Structures are given as C-alpha cells and as structure tokens.
Amino acid sequence: MAQREWLDRLISLALEEDIGPGDWTTLWTVGTDARGTATIVAKEPLVAAGTEVATQVFLRVEPTLAVECETEDGGEVQGGGILLRISGPLRGILTAERTALNFLARLSGIATLTRRFVAAVSGTGAKVLDTRKTTPGWRCLEKAAVAAGGGLNHRVGLHDMVLVKDNHILAAGGVAAAVEGIRRGNREGLPVEVEVGDLDQLEEAFSLGVRRILLDNIRLETMREAVRRAKSLGKNRPLLEASGNMTLARVRAVAETGVDFISVGALTHSAPSADLSLRILPER
Fold it and tell me: Which of 1, 36, 63, 77 has the greatest number of beta carbons closer than 10 A?
C-alpha cells in the first residue's frame, strides 16, 4: 500500500472513531456561518512533529479551511509558541480539534524525547536509532517523528532488513546455522544484523563475516571489550549496535564505549505526549 493511501486510511479511522454519527455539541452550538481563526499552541518547550498529518485532519473535516504551518517538523518551540494556525468555518475547526491534537501531541512527544537522547550522546559518534516498538498502525508516523528529533530509523518492518535475535538463534540451532540459512535464502540482498549476548557469540559472528552486530543487554565492561575486539579487525570491521535498558541517565555511558549505534525502544513506546492546546482567537 502506498504511504499516502495508508495515511488517508489512518486519518479516516481516527475521525470515524471520534466523530461517529456526528459532533452534536458543535452542530448544536455553533452556527453554519460562524468563522474564525485558531492556533495550536505549545504549553511547554518541544520539538514539533506531525504537522502535515494534523493539517490533513483539518482539511478532511472541512476542505475550505486555511491551515498555515508556523513551525516545521523538527523545529524547536518554546512554551507559548505556535505550531499551526487554522482559519475558516469554526464548525470544522472544532470537530477536527481533538484528532489533530492527538496526532500532534503524540508525534511531537516522540520528536522531543528523541532530541534529548541525541543531545545526550553528542560528541561520541554514536547514532540513536528507533525500534519496531511502535503504536500499531502509526509506525511510519512515529519513525518520521524520530527523524524530526534527530534520530535515525532502523528497519521499518520484518521485510526490509534481517535481524537475527536470540529466539531465532535458539530455533535455528545456533548463530552459524541461522546465518547460513539467511545466506541461502537472502536473494534480495537485504542487510543482515545478528544479535549476540556474550563475547563467545561475538567471536562466532566475526568468524562468519557478519557486518553488523547487536549487543543486547550487555554490561558496559563487556561492551567496551566488544568494541576493542571489533576495532582490532581494521577499517572493514563490523558495526556494533547496543540495545537494552536505554535511558537518558545511562545512554551517555553506553555511547562512550565506542559503539556505532544505540537503539532506544523508549523513543516510541514511552515518550510522553507533548502538552498542546487549540485556542480560538477573539475576532477583532
């Protein structure tokens, strides 16, 4: 499915969920000729994300609305700053309000948390990655929010990269068996990453010529040794990714071990929604 078609379906589901058979409050209190302007305002400092989908929500409800983006995705907004300005029929603005705010708040929250993780590892050379721990149906939006916050996107799904995790290794009968099976079947040339849980598995992955290795839930001392061993292989060494229990308090220490990437599930599964509000401006 094309991304545009998928986003249209997601917006339709969100609006159907909220409006149902009708927004009776608005229909019974706001006249058909009532017009005005509203702004979506940040109530706290944040990094904006989701402005395009929020714009599409307003236009789906009322195509005659004029929506101006005051802050592009990735832009930092201080408390009181404006993300969107919407003008036109007030019925459309009020009916679309909550759905648009839900998208904006969730996605801006992800971008804001991502920016904090990126800042925490600044200067180390480590790159912050997202994971597949996303809200069902929202993955592309949430990964776009991570990118807006300065993070990098890992695989989109099970189809665009091979990631051999511990359960795959157990089911296959070992690291070597799993890698050999992939090499037989990987006719599309998908990138391959293998998870290891200790230095013995790391050495086995080295011997198999694995180009990217995931160090999952490994202690810092072991991580430093893994980096030392990888770097001893020279400029064509495997890239190392660290994962597991990545918090803002810990991520700097992980980055300083010398790993290339740090995957952080919290970017999408634990980011608090940004605090936003829609304000109708008084007519002059």
Answer: 77
